[in-house]
Write a structure and sequence with these properties.
- The complex is a heterodimer.
- By secondary structure, chain A is α+β, with helices and mostly antiparallel strands.
- Helices cover 16% and strands 45% of the residues of chain A.
- Chain B has helices at residues 6-13, 35-45, 62-76, 94-117, 120-129, 135-148, 159-168, 181-184, 209-216, 220-230, 243-253, 256-262, 276-284, 303-313, 318-332, 356-373, 390-395; strands spanning 18-21, 30-34, 47-48, 51-52, 80-85, 152-154, 174-176, 189-192, 204-208, 336-337, 345-347.
- The radius of gyration of chain B is 23 Å and the shape is globular.
- Chain B is 48% helix and 10% strand.
- Chain B is α/β, with parallel strands linked by helices.
- Chain B has a domain at 23-202 and 307-334: Rossmann fold (3-Layer(aba) Sandwich).
- The chains are: A alpha+beta, B alpha/beta.
- The A-B interface holds A 35-37, 39, 42-44, 46, 48-53, 55, 71-73, 128-137, 163, 212, 214, 239-240, 256, 258-263, 266-267 and B 16, 21-22, 24-25, 27, 297-298, 332, 334-347, 349, 381-382, 384-392, 394-395.
């Protein structure tokens, strides 16, 4: 029974999605603030070195029930939130509640047979968040591929080097790296699949693109693979890479990563 | 040196203006370093058994060892240092310099006495006070930087003022110095502890001028007035006015002139011929070289030259110099990691401006931000934030 001054209450039928969302971002950004409005919950945060940006959107339609009377911003340590969510079974329902002027957020987990109810209170933090405006971009190349393929590619190449150069042409995309012990490259060709769209590799290319990124961050991003079978890589020259893991009807996680720039260009 | 008690006031009234960061988070950043301040620091800190490091010929090498290793520490973290040396001190400073000379004289006398009475601690204490950076030290430091491929410049006058101009001109990200007056010269960002030894394990302290002004509720001119009252390098301060009194005086009266008029002259003695107006003018528009005319290049080190200078002439261990040189070379190759802010512009976070006073404050902060970043190179497409998080958008 929610107290009368509850301003925010959101309920998922199953804890698994929220658990996966938190696991996908907690290692990249430590403390962040969840912005809750009547359209949903979102967070936007950079990692401590300001190289990557995470944008998570959980749309109100994706919840079992959702209510937000006025906009609230809840500063939370994602590691603490992960700890709390560990206490929920994957199939338990999760209810998040925040009261007006309160310094805590409440979590309630309920098993579906209703024989076990657990409640936790997490202290909110004062977080000085810096929000960045993400410009609407017409990307030069957009690659849609199975998220498992991206995860494997990045993991494989990290054994050889720190950076990967992603080059997108009309019908294939190449991932290349080099390091002290040698070099490696992976080429993925476009392939259609009418019966299994999640295994499709689709390339929309307006202009060819070749950009270099730190593999360390890409490996953080692919932690979101369990959330979505497919992933979209959006690239433009001299622009951050956008890696989107769509969650149909629920929302998305978008990661942005600043490219590595050649020193020569930088000095001019 | 610097502005008395300013960091204390900032911690008290504008805590949000101070951030602590690990040094490694500054990779790829160009930073202007106040060389004169750092050299002095090296002379004090880089010592052995209480005395300067010297080579076999007895020449002091503390400044070179410090500059070599601390520069490499920064380069190793991917930082691009640009050293700025003091030029001719402004005339305003002559009184202060005169006083420092007097104090040196005292210290010299004290040192002599201490040597006679034989107290080691005393000897060290006074010899530290005698530390002076000569033209020779500066020239050697510049020679070292040249060989290392690290850019440097000599300011027309004060190094901190030149650093601040470079920050505002978008040439570098921040000024690295321990002197707080870089903020008075309107450096948008000031970094402390950048040239400290790694062993101290001091995180980098980052001061944001816009947030200082926002927290203080002051304009840059009012801030300058406050700094003059606190005590700066260019004129005496009024005896009996501490940081809190200075802060309330400017807050209540709006500027130094009005504050002076209100002062009880019996209680507080304003120095005769107090040149505060000249100091105000100097802080507002110090003599600097225009950043637009300056270009800096980070180049590969001259290996043979470094070995010759450091090892043959100055007696450094060759193995260590070579090992450190590898670090310099390593950073020269390979692409440089970009940052999110290079592409996406920050949306000024105005925390629920509900009252008109808050709104005015937010506006002021906004203005200052623009003041600080006006000349920064921004991608035109980053100017229109299309998808700010909806909550923040609603608040604005």
């Amino acid at each position: 029974m929610p107290a009368s001054n509850t301003v925010f209450e959101a309920k998922w039928d199953h804890a698994s999605t929220l658990k996966k969302v938190i696991d996908a971002v907690k290692d990249l950004i430590g403390d962040t603030s969840w912005d809750c409005t009547n359209t949903g919950m979102s967070l936007q945060s950079m990692d401590s070195s300001h190289v990557a940006l995470v944008h998570v959107l959980l749309k109100s339609e994706g919840f079992e029930s959702y209510r937000c009377d006025r906009n609230v911003s809840m500063g939370i340590s994602l590691n603490s939130m992960a700890k709390v969510l560990k206490c929920a079974g994957n199939d338990d329902s999760v209810t998040l509640r925040h009261e007006s002027e309160s310094s805590v957020v409440n979590f309630a987990f309920e098993s579906h047979k209703e024989e076990r109810v657990s409640e936790f209170e997490l202290k909110l933090m004062n977080i000085d968040t810096e929000h960045l405006g993400i410009p609407e971009t017409e990307y030069d190349s957009i690659i849609k591929m199975p998220s498992a393929d991206l995860r494997r590619t990045c993991a494989d190449l990290s054994q050889f080097g720190d950076s990967v150069t992603i080059s997108c042409a009309k019908s294939d995309v190449r991932f290349e790296t080099s390091g002290d012990i040698g070099t490696g490259n992976v080429r993925l060709s476009a392939r259609g699949s009418s019966d299994k769209p999640e295994t499709e590799i689709a390339i929309e290319m307006i202009n060819p693109v070749s950009l270099t990124f730190a593999l360390k961050y890409l490996n953080f991003f692919t932690k979101a693979a369990p959330l979505s079978d497919t992933v979209k890589l959006c690239m433009s020259n001299n622009h951050p890479l956008c890696v989107e893991f769509p969650m149909p009807e629920v929302g998305y996680i978008r990661y942005y990563l600043a490219p590595k720039i050649d020193e020569e260009q930088d000095n001019e | 040196m610097g502005i008395k008690d300013l960091s204390k006031l900032i911690a008290e009234h504008a805590a949000g203006a101070i951030k602590e960061n690990e040094m490694k988070n500054y990779f790829g950043r160009k930073v202007a370093i106040d060389a004169s301040m750092a050299l002095y620091q090296f002379m004090i800190a880089v010592r052995q058994e209480g005395d300067f490091l010297t080579n076999e010929a007895g020449e002091v090498t503390s400044h070179l060892l410090g500059m070599f290793h601390r520069t490499i520490r920064m380069v190793d973290q991917g930082i691009k240092p640009l050293w700025v040396f003091d030029g001719t001190p402004p005339e305003l400073k002559s009184a202060t310099l005169e006083k420092r000379k007097e104090r040196r004289g005292d210290a010299e006398k004290n040192l002599e006495e201490a040597k006679e009475t034989g107290g080691d601690v005393e000897i060290e204490k006074f010899s530290r006070r005698l530390v002076k950076i000569t033209k020779e030290h500066n020239d050697e430091a510049k020679k070292l930087l040249k060989l290392m491929g690290i850019p440097f410049m000599t300011a027309p006058s004060e190094a901190e003022a030149q650093c601040a101009a470079l920050v505002r001109g978008g040439v570098v990200y921040a000024t690295a110095t321990e002197d707080m007056d870089a903020l008075t010269f309107a450096s948008s960002i000031l970094l402390r502890h950048m040239t400290f030894s790694e062993a101290k394990k001091m995180p980098i302290q980052e001061f944001h001028l816009a947030k200082v002004l926002e927290g203080f509720g002051m304009t840059q001119d009012q801030f300058i007035d406050l700094c003059i009252l606190l005590g700066c390098d260019y004129c005496d301060k009024i005896k009996g006015i501490g940081p809190n009194k200075a802060f309330t005086l400017i807050k209540e009266h709006g500027n130094l002139e009005a504050a002076l008029k209100s002062l009880d002259k019996k209680k507080y003695q304003v120095p005769e011929d107090w040149p505060y107006e000249a100091v105000q003018a100097y802080f507002r528009a110090p003599e600097v070289a225009a950043p637009a005319d300056l270009t800096f290049k980070w180049e590969a080190p001259d290996e043979a030259g470094l070995i010759q200078f450091l090892c043959t002439e100055k007696g450094f261990a060759e193995e260590r110099v070579r090992k450190n040189m590898e670090k310099l070379k390593k950073q020269k190759s390979g692409p440089v990691q970009g940052r999110m802010e290079d592409y996406f512009k920050a949306i000024p976070a105005s925390p629920k401006p509900s009252t008109s006073k808050d709104l005015a404050k937010a506006k002021l902060a906004e203005d200052m931000k623009n003041f600080g970043t006006l000349k920064n190179k921004r991608k035109p497409d980053a100017k229109s934030p299309s998808k700010p998080s909806s909550a923040k958008k609603a608040k604005r």
